Amino acid sequence: MNSPHDALTICIDRGGTFTDCIGFVSRPGEPSYKEYVVKLLSEDPANYKDAPTEGIRRIVELATGKTISRDEPVPTSSIESVRMGTTVATNALLERKGERCALLITKGFKDLLTIGNQSRPKIFDLSITKPDILQQTVVEIDERVIILNSAAQQDTKDPHTLSDTFKGISGEWVQVLQKPDIPFVKQQLHSLYDDGYRSISICLMHAYTYPEHEIQIGDMAKSIGFSHISLSSHVMPMVKIVPRGTSAVADAYLTPCIQDYIQGFVSGFDDGFKNGTTKLQFMQSDGGLVPVEHFSGFKAILSGPAGGVVGYAQTTYDAHHDPTPVIGFDMGGTSTDVSRYAGHYEHVFETTTAGITIQAPQLDINTVAAGGGSMLFFKNGMFTVGPESAGAHPGPACYRKGGPLAVSDANLLLGRLLPNYFPKIFGPNEDLGLDTAIVHEKFTELAKTINASSHTSKSLDEIVYGFIKVANETMCRPIRALTEAKGHDTSRHTLAVFGGAGGQHACDIARNLGISKVVLYRHSSILSAFGLALADVVHEVQEPCADLIGSKTLPGLKERMNQLTEQCTRALLDQGFSKNQIDTQVFLNLRYKGTDCALMTLQPSDPKNALDFEGEFVQLYKQEFGFSFPGRSIHVDDIRVRGTGRTWTHQTLTPDEDLLVSSQLEELREGTTSVYFESGRDKDVPVYLLKNLPAGTKVPGPAMIIDVTATVVVEPFCSAHITSQHIVITIGQGQRRQATVEMEPVQLSIFSHRFMSIAEQMGRTLQKTAISTNIKERLDFSCALFGADGGLVANAPHIPVHLGSLSHAVIYQMNYYKDTLKEGDVIMSNHPAAGGSHLPDITIITPVFDHGKIVFFVASRGHHADIGGISPGSMPPHSKELYQEGAAIKSFKIVSNNTFDSEGVKERLYTIPASYSGCSGTRCLEDNISDLKAQIAANHKGISLVKALIQEYSLEVVQAYMMHIRNNAEQAVRHLLQQVAESHQGNDLVATDFMDDGTPLCLRVTIDATEGTAVFDFEGTGPEVYGNTNAPESVCHSAIIYCIRCLVGQDIPLNSGCLVPVTICIPGRSILSPSHDSAVVGGNVVTSQRIVDVVFKAFGACAASQGCCNNLTFGKGGKNEETGEATAGWGYYETIAGGKGFVFSFFFLFTSVSMLTIFCFCFYFCFCFLGSGAGPGWNGQSGVHTHMTNTRITDPEILERRYPVILREFSLRQGSGGQGNYKGGDGVVRDIEFLEPAIQVSILSERRVYHPYGLFGGEDGKTGQNLWIRKHNDYEQVLNFSGKNSATFGKGDRIVIQTPGGGGYGSLKEKEDTPATSLIDAIKHIGHLVKAGGSLGAYRETSESA
């Protein structure tokens, strides 16, 4: 290996379990091509310090034939370049082992990144465990920049007439209200430096467009000696201070770790890397390589899996011969990642990893399961796979490290993993194979438990194969959701399978998804490493923008695009690329006016239409969502240029050309083995070595194909076609073992996934086809499946207040129509007496027929932006009667005999509500109709999926498992109640709480310990009120089912079985069972929270949280009834943490709204940023949503960009949580200044009189307070605005909301002896949790915080 042509290129993927290494001489497809493959454990401290270094050492030994001691530096003379994908940044983030760093942020926002969007990660987790923040300390900088002339501002200013105004990078004008005090900031920086900080991040309000203050402070920090300085305006110059700030902190936290790792890595070699004779490049999250000196932490989160996407894209997708889109299925030891490729890489630009939201281009890679290390459990009578992972250490049981049973162990026992062909890298001397004995022993014990619990006598094979089936379905469910979300049919894809465990599941996964073709590249088990060889070097530049697309703005946009393209090209030229090796792509991040859904739109490839971004965007929007907004303005949020420097040229690596010349050859068996399949154990399955199979060989299933680093299971009724580079498997239908009506634990788990998948796919359809911001972007909806009796079968847990009430709505319609419903009928309802929550939530119910008989129901409930009433948004803060809140519909056939009744909809949403005094009909009828049709379409999707399930299994089996799953949930609740009865020695559980008006909420829970049943009796609760805090009975049921699910503490199916052991007694005409015409809008968002507090108080589960959703509304415009004059209104709504809410903004002329009842297009807040209550073993969280709501808050920069306000402060209300053995969480302070006169402001809040209670000696949390800071010429007047009030605020006036804290738990005397613990601590002992990332993870987080 003396000539340069013989130099090695080594590519390394350091995964969570294994590190894969491949070395090349020459290029794939060339005659002189050679390769060397090494696979080793990522963590093996007894044998080597660093797996990539060890892998390179072994490859160099193989290539040169020379022995290299582990104690000497690895020589680089034979290495041309090293390319690496690494999990160093990911691991540092997950384990919180990054660099000690500080955050410098605008004054008033010191807690902003702690609060984040203030949604809680898991809606049923009472301890509300949130990942730790990354910054160790925060320094507030006394500076302030505001946006001039927000989108809604009517009193616009000429920037040229004002002082300290500047035109920002985005084109927006800003005004500097406060410049940094440089001497004082310098003192602050010196103080940090003296405290030992060397890495800092700087994030200031509106720095995305005006970065001067950040740059000024950054230069000062550099002069002081800080070694790493992350400016948010440089890290990612995009609007939204929260994700931009967390990205900057992540960079300050992770990049020093990356640099330390690189220094340690380079020290294991001679001077080749240091002097540049050997190149070192790293893979970024966006799928591009960068030189080592440009590799940063926040762009390294997906460094490892990104190589796999490049690998399968280049080796599977063939645009010329077969442009079928590809689903990438990467199943490794620690995680399973799914992505999609259809000719271009799909990126996302804001993702959350380990609780940290990062703004950066990342490949849309979705972690859907824990891979071969997924731990296996038998819980509540069901087989469960993951999400906990055994990881690399200790790993599965077969790794000889004392690990738990995992998916890899199941494959081993079933013969799908052959020990003789698996690397012998285990044991103290790294020379032992997989441990089959311990696996058999552990599964035998587990099988005894399962058979005893389920009263069956299944064989060991049947039980272990059951775990494989559940694992496959667990992975298929999110794959369906991912493809459906993008508007694609899952079955019309090729499945590209890679990763060490992928080949063992490929056929089953494809068959479950309806996919007929599976492709495995010959390096499938190390494709993430091989993909690094095929990747290009990437350089990206991006700038913010605030223009509209149009003829006037296009010349300026073109100039900016050209400047960024030149900048990008120059950076790649500086790296040594020639111009003919460089390609650039230009993107505009576009969105329709009035929406938050921006799509990164690629410049058209046709030179004649190179600036027709609008046409491209409309086409992309239609593909994604099924419709467009003709005539609506299109905003440009960002300009992005992506440059690539091509590093390798290679022959085509896709399989299709080989397939065209394939031929049948004789089998070349290595031997036979025993493997268990669906049909039973086959003891004579042929085994083939891939290296012995010539191109063109067809291998019929069943068969085992063994590669150096992978095992491929060819299932019965499938066939594998061997090409020069691939294994191409054709999937046959196969024969499934028929399920029976008898309860079987494996089928119980599978049906649980299938039922939930129906609800999820209904939700995806609704989101795609809806037009309103509430449903499409806020995901403020729920979709559910019900039995023929109206009982809930499956409801994706989006909105807690919907959990029990949807079933009430279905049962009401069943009783109303009796047996008169026909196929083609669809029902619309929203009335509280008919199972509704509040009027804006409209429910669409469709019966599912089979042979003329109703066998199921499907339903969807969505929050509509307006349905009439006394104020826009139909959420009036002072309603006294139900009609004031808008259209109230008990039952209406919106579709009859498959005909949509548009006139009937108009009458019920527009004509009837407008007939009441002071009320209007709906103010957005067209949007209502569009969303109602979307709900009908979602139900239709559910019906088709239910019918497909019936066709697959039979009606009898499907309905039987519906009942089995309900029974499963019922038994879990009965067990809970028996435990509670035992702990309380049979005594009744009693609690009382009070609304601020003195109305009592009383509860007595009587439990029958023998039967495991309970009576929840609300006798003594106060009468209904002349106001809107009345809560419908369905809301009370929702609150109770939510509480029960929290108390169970395990992931049980959410269905009507949860309430079978529970009897709920509510006195009539009470605040919890109001009259049919009583106002209820506040009951849904306020009283529902208080019901939860009362239940948890009775059970002693935790201290009180806020018990309220501080509802703040403000806005202006409408019709003056005295003069008849109409003025334009502006508006925006958001539930910051209320039971129901929405983000909706648009402009129109109000013509029928009283100025006295306005809040016209108000800014609607439900402030439930509060402190959560403490409980046994945990401190309460501060500044989070609790219980019946989990909505997100608007980013401060978006708020100020769109509305004439300044957010002066948004911070934690220190000391508001109750003291105790476990402290209650703190509430927040939110201080808003208005920049225009005559803004109507209203507040609807609770816990201003009665404190959030403490439990068992814990102190109460502080009550909340609302202040009106009224500006006069020469002084400020501070007024107590009280809990419920309304007034017209002037320019310069402020409203300050101080939300309550949570109650404490246990007396302070116990504190010294009882350290607080968290769920995270417990998890560390049982395995690593794997959460979905990418667009799928973003959807899930949004849906659970809607």
Structure description:
With 1346 residues, the chain is an alpha+beta fold. An 8-stranded mixed sheet has the order 18-15-14-21-22-33-32-29, sandwiched between helices. A 7-stranded antiparallel sheet has the order 35-34-38-37-36-39-40, with helices on both faces. Strands 45, 46, 47, 48, 49, 52 and 55 form a 7-stranded mixed sheet that branches. The model is unreliable at 1134-1168 and 1314-1332 (pLDDT under 50). The protein has 28 helices and 57 strands.
Layout of SSEs?
Layout: E1 8-14, E2 18-25, E3 34-41, H1 51-64, E4 79-85, H2 88-95, E5 101-106, H3 112-115, E6 137-141, E7 144-147, E8 165-167, E9 173-178, H4 182-194, E10 199-203, H5 212-224, E11 228-231, H6 232-235, H7 241-266, H8 272-275, E12 279-283, E13 289-291, H9 303-316, E14 326-331, E15 336-341, E16 347-353, E17 356-363, E18 366-369, E19 374-379, E20 382-389, H10 407-413, H11 436-454, H12 460-485, E21 494-498, H13 506-513, E22 517-521, H14 527-534, E23 537-548, H15 554-574, E24 582-592, E25 599-602, H16 613-625, E26 634-645, H17 656-660, E27 671-677, E28 680-689, E29 698-700, E30 703-706, E31 711-714, E32 719-722, E33 726-730, H18 745-769, H19 773-776, E34 781-787, E35 792-795, H20 805-817, E36 826-829, E37 841-850, E38 853-863, E39 892-896, E40 899-900, H21 902-914, H22 925-953, H23 955-983, E41 989-994, E42 1000-1008, E43 1013-1017, H24 1033-1048, E44 1062-1065, H25 1081-1099, E45 1110-1119, E46 1126-1130, E47 1132-1133, E48 1148-1149, E49 1163-1167, H26 1196-1202, E50 1205-1212, E51 1228-1234, E52 1239-1244, E53 1265-1271, E54 1276-1280, ...
Parallel strand pairs: 1-4, 4-12, 5-6, 5-10, 10-11, 14-21, 21-22, 28-30, 43-44, 47-49
Antiparallel strand pairs: 1-2, 2-3, 7-9, 8-9, 12-13, 14-15, 15-18, 16-17, 19-20, 20-57, 22-33, 23-26, 24-25, 24-26, 27-28, 29-32, 30-31, 32-33, 34-35, 34-38, 36-37, 36-39, 37-38, 39-40, 41-42, 42-43, 45-46, 45-49, 45-52, 46-48, 50-51, 51-56, 52-55, 53-54, 53-56
Helix pairs in contact: 2-7, 4-5, 9-14, 10-11, 10-12, 12-13, 12-18, 18-22, 18-23, 20-24, 22-23, 24-25
